[in-house]
Design goal:
The protein is an all-alpha fold. The protein is built from four helices and no strands.
């Protein structure tokens, strides 16, 4: 596994963890997040990402992070 692939896997896991933690903090279900993002991305995409079945593009990850008020920092 190359460093670039390894880094992208870590990035995806970290983003997913941050999203799940924020949902828990807010008391939101996955369904609530889907409703918040209605019309911005398919529900199946959100469910599949949170279940670990698919990754997100940077653009789609940014949409979810923005909806939750989260930002990526170095």
């Amino acid at each position: 596994m190359t460093n670039a692939v390894s880094s992208s896997i870590v990035w995806a896991i970290t983003i997913k963890t941050a999203i799940k933690n924020e949902l828990k903090r807010r008391g939101w279900t996955r369904y609530r997040l889907v409703k918040e993002l209605e019309g911005k991305m398919p529900a199946r995409t959100i469910y599949a990402f949170l279940a670990g079945e698919q990754d997100l593009t940077t653009e789609r990850a940014s949409i979810i992070l923005k909806a939750l008020g989260l930002k990526i920092k170095r």
